[in-house]
Amino acid sequence: MAVFGPDGESIGKLRDVVAGLRADRLPPRVLGVVVELATRRRIFVPMLRVTSIEPGAVTLSTGSVNLRHFHQRPNEIRVISELLDAQVVIEATETRAVVEDVAMEPTRTRDWVLSRVAVRERVGRFGRRGPVRVIRWEDARGPGSVDLSTEPQGAQQLITVYEGMRAADVAVALRELPTKRRYEVADALDDERLADVIEELPDDDQKDLLGHLDDERAADILEAMNPDDAADLLAELSELDKNRLLELMEPEESEPVKRLLEYSSDTAGGLMTPEPVVLTHDATIAEALARVRNPDLTPALASMVFVTRPPTATPTGRYLGCVHLQRLLREPPFDLVAGALDAELPKLSPTASLSEVTRHFATYNLVCAPVVDEGEHLLGAVTVDDVLDHLLPEGWRENGLWEATTDA
């Protein structure tokens, strides 16, 4: 849900609801909400600041908003992150159930409480999925009375929440979860989605999550990652762990990663992806446009097509030049890419330093640049997002971009 200030200005997105657990089994009081700002920083906003909750939108009252990063206290629970998929017992029937949703409502004292729970019963000896029932909070034994750190908990409802979010936003959400919950979500995500999310995590969190997975699945995740990201992650591991995982990967997936590991991470060779769009000189403009339409390509990687002699798999045959996307859009579709070639654009050496790469991008106004060896073979391409990852201050993913207090 979108979160707005009193004058209608956009503040961010509602990501969770924080409640205080009680020992007396009465409905927990809602303490506030977790709001994700445009910078991806998650902050806590007390319920006293919430003036209205409408379909699709939350409005805050006038006043200052503390932009310090939200930190959960021991007596607090996050509804979306920790209650969804939790196991409970319905007291009236002593049947086990799983939490599918939670309702909150205001009281006469203007406090908000978690009043009701939508649960799906598990019936029969094999725990078949039964009907969904809505019961009072106090009629469910589990959240608040059972230690959630030891109770087995699924992740399907939480994954449903994450479905429409970008991988970078899911990575932020994942870092906010308790360790046990984070592992449960990782186990439930499919390989492609988990690979995308891991690419957006800080180094330490990447290593932690990869270490949680068994070796076979860890190798599958590395295969699903972009080769340059997989190489960066493997470079952080011990030689023993790195070599073991490389051996488990399929040879066609591990070979480009091994080539990247030969270069330092702060050189063009270490920054590049070995899978740019490569065509031969006799390909048509229409073929080139079809290739850059691939939704799996980043906008930066889709901005340029590289033309070489066969073979077109890196390291390629002799590098001939590149064609910029804007030029492709201006040419007749059945003309050859050779006629639109930019053969004058300088190339990067795989040993070029980060500062050299940065100056190259700034000088030629690029978002993507070719990396070519001394034998004129195209090795890969560096994109601007890889450069930015190395230029930003260390820990930028964990700390966000701003820490301040402002008025809403």
TrEMBL record:
Keyword tags:
CBS domain
Q: Which Pfam families match?
A: CBS, MgtE_N, SH3_actinomycetes
Superkingdom classification of source: Bacteria
Q: Which Gene3D superfamilies match?
A: CBS-domain, MgtE N-terminal domain-like
An example molecular function term from Gene Ontology annotations? magnesium ion transmembrane transporter activity
Q: Which GO terms describe its cellular component?
A: membrane
Name the PROSITE patterns for this protein.
CBS
The reply to whether Transferase figures as a keyword in the UniProt entry is no
Which InterPro entries does the record match to this protein?
A: CBS_dom, CBS_dom_sf, Mg_transptr_MgtE_intracell_dom, MgtE_N_sf, MgtE_transporter, PRC_barrel-like_sf, SH3_actinomycetes
Signal peptide positions are none
- Domain CBS positions: 341-398
Q: What is this protein called?
A: Mg/Co/Ni transporter MgtE
Q: Which organism is it from?
A: Actinocrispum wychmicini
